[in-house]
Amino acid sequence: MRYLLLFSLLFSFSFAEITMIKDTKTNLLWEDTPHVREAKITQPRAKIYCSELRLGDFEDWRLPTIQELLTIIDYRRTSPALIKVFNYVEDESFYWSQTVMADESDAFWGVNFKRGASSKASEYYDRYARCVRSIK
């Protein structure tokens, strides 16, 4: 079932508007497509999705660290607590990072953009993903 979901997500993504957000303060380029609010996947699947993402002319996408996710929070806003340049967000849900919890090898940090709060979740839960790449 998950493979079918992933395939359908990749198929639908191929017809999505290509949008990226450049953050010159952190030298990061962020995925900003409808996928970031439409597809919930496990943390291992999120890592695979990002590593296989081909957006623009770039092939080096990855799941962000918790520190990188925290850089796009706007603490002066809620619902979403995300900087205004982003078009796509599911503000009621958790977004995965690649940062593992120090004391739980199957739990990872993430951010809920409704209020900009960071927390952990088991890697087996379905959550959202927003990919990132470093600008060289």
Characterise the protein shown here.
With 136 residues, the chain is α+β, with helices and mostly antiparallel strands. The chain has one domain (25-134): Mannose-Binding Protein A, subunit A (Mannose-Binding Protein A, Chain A), CATH 3.10.100.10. 23% of the residues lie in helices and 25% in strands. It is built from 4 helices and 6 strands, in the order H-E-E-H-H-H-E-E-E-E. It has helices spanning 2-13, 35-38, 43-52, 66-70; strands at residues 20-23, 28-31, 94-101, 104-112, 117-122, 132-134. Strands 1-2-6 form a 3-stranded antiparallel β-sheet, with no helix packed on it. The protein has a 3-stranded antiparallel β-sheet with strand order 3-4-5. A hairpin with a 2-residue loop joins strand 3 and strand 4 (104-112). The radius of gyration is 14 Å and the shape is globular. The termini are far apart. 33% of the residues are buried.
Largest beta-sheet characterization? 3 strands, antiparallel
Count of discrete domains: 1
Indicate the percent of residues in helices: 10-25%
Strand content: 25-35%
Provide the succession of SSEs: HEEHHHEEEE
**Computed CA radius of gyration, to the nearest angstrom:** 14 Å
End-to-end Cα distance, whole Å, is: 38 Å
What is the CATH C-level name?
Alpha Beta
Describe the secondary structure blueprint for this structure.
Elements: H1 2-13, E1 20-23, E2 28-31, H2 35-38, H3 43-52, H4 66-70, E3 94-101, E4 104-112, E5 117-122, E6 132-134
Antiparallel strand pairs: 1-2, 2-6, 3-4, 4-5
